[in-house]
Specification:
Number of helices: 17
CATH class of the largest domain: Alpha Beta
Distance between the termini: 71 Å
CATH superfamily of the largest domain: Isopropylmalate Dehydrogenase
Radius of gyration: 22 Å
Oligomer: single chain
CATH architecture of the largest domain: 3-Layer(aba) Sandwich
Number of domains: 2
Structural class: alpha/beta
Helix content: 40-55%
Bound molecules: 3-isopropylmalic acid, magnesium ion
Length: 403
């Protein structure tokens, strides 16, 4: 055996372990959650992103400005545009997030982030790490919270996807040991598993849902997924009122398409990659990934994004004005809830349901035969101003069947 190859691999592995142990030490210094009521000003960073990003971001910011008018006037909230998170600038610095951009992000409390291009092999860009993944790690946004609802089918799911570990923690740090041997690494830490599982149980308890499903592949990926599941067993002891079960990702994926079974699932906690895949599948029932928002939450920062990509083809074909901003607007509603404006977050969510699902007076299709993103934004703002908004929303809710 070539000892040099072995030494190089060992060194690589040692480096990874060191970095993860350091990360654990940082997690142990838990400073608690930010209390936004006490923060003035709350700084909302806005990253316009690539492709259709600037188009859908502009519409989303318009709605936020409309909803937060009093707070913008009083100085409780300010917007900060962050210019540098574009693929051109990231490629120029050959970094997922250039240093000065990261500094700017860290000056904010929460960030509204439009889609950014994730290069892959063969693209004209250097093969840098995804900006989302880097931001989640840099700002320790450990919880990816993704709601999916289809009321008429009884679907009401809340996914708590672990966002900083699993296959993603070292997704860009695998090793080509030789030309024939490629190895990636996946990570579970006790601290990382505990905080996401606790968040899911807290949510289930606080909302009275009292039901959590933990999804792993612990029968095969025994060490890391096994640790995640063991942690669930531990955490569950602190929540005797919350009923919980565990499923393997393969059968869970199948059961989500079973109309008889899927309505029993309510709150899901799962490692990063499974969460990535399952939430795309889940969003499809709701009308596709373009309709789902995603909150990336840590104790100090929060980042809110659309769950779809930057769709460069739409820009190339001149269709960017027709891109659907719903996913980013839903993320903005989650942001409002997160920073203490749940009244407005709720209104925005109701308007999204009414305009996007129930009434559909205009429909954004991504083509010039459909409505423009700006027209949808107008429709949403008009709907929010309806004094009968809640009643109007209620009228579309399926009546609960008598027992
Ligand atoms: C998501 C996306 C990202 C992920 C990509 C763009 C790196 O699919 O937010 O789900 O895999 O997490
Ligand atoms: Mg995804």
């Amino acid at each position: 055996m070539d000892t040099q190859v072995l030494e190089r691999a060992k060194e690589h592995f040692a480096g990874l372990i060191e970095a993860q142990l350091e990360r654990i030490e940082r997690m142990k210094k838990d400073e608690g959650w930010v209390d936004y009521e006490k923060v003035k000003p709350i700084i909302i960073g806005v990253c316009w992103g690539d492709g259709i990003g600037p188009y859908i971001c502009q519409q989303t910011q318009r709605i936020l400005e409309f909803l937060l008018k009093p707070e913008l006037e009083s100085g409780k909230v300010v917007f900060k545009t962050i210019e540098g998170l574009t693929i051109e600038n990231r490629a120029k610095h050959n970094k997922a997030i250039p240093d000065d951009v990261l500094e700017e992000l860290k000056q904010c409390h929460v960030i509204l982030k439009a889609p950014t291009t994730t290069p892959r092999k063969g693209d004209p860009w250097p093969n840098i790490e995804s900006a989302n993944v880097a931001m989640r790690k840099e700002l320790d946004l450990f919880a990816n919270v993704r709601p999916v609802k289809v009321p008429e089918q009884g679907i009401d799911w809340m996914f708590f996807r672990e966002n900083t570990e699993g296959a993603y923690a070292l997704g860009s740090n695998g090793i080509n040991v030789t030309d024939d041997l490629a190895i990636d690494f996946t990570v579970t830490t006790a601290q990382g598993a505990e905080r996401i599982i606790r968040l899911a149980f807290d949510y289930a308890k606080r909302t009275g849902i009292n039901k959590v499903t933990v999804v792993t592949k612990a029968n095969v990926v025994k060490t890391t997924d096994g640790r995640f599941l063991d942690m669930a067993r531990e955490v569950a002891k602190d929540y005797p009122e919350v009923e919980w079960d565990d499923w393997y990702i393969d059968i869970m994926t199948a059961k989500l398409v079973d109309p008889k079974r899927r309505t029993q699932f309510r709150v899901m906690a799962l490692p990063n990659l499974y969460g990535d895949i399952l939430t795309d599948e889940a969003a499809e029932f709701q009308g596709g990934v373009g309709t789902a928002g995603s909150a990336n939450i840590g104790k100090r920062y929060g980042m809110f994004e659309a769950i779809h990509g930057s769709a460069p083809r739409m820009v190339k074909e001149g269709r960017a004005d027709y891109a659907d901003p719903s996913s980013l607007i839903r993320a903005a509603a989650m942001m409002l809830n997160h920073i203490g404006f749940a009244d407005r977050g709720k209104k925005l969510e109701m308007a999204l349901d009414i305009c996007g699902n129930f009434e559909q007076k205009l429909v954004v299709t991504g083509r010039s035969t459909g409505a423009k993103g700006s027209e949808l934004a107008d429709y949403l703002m008009e709907t929010i101003q309806d004094p009968e908004l809640e009643k109007r929303w209620q009228s579309y809710q399926p009546k609960t069947k008598a027992a």
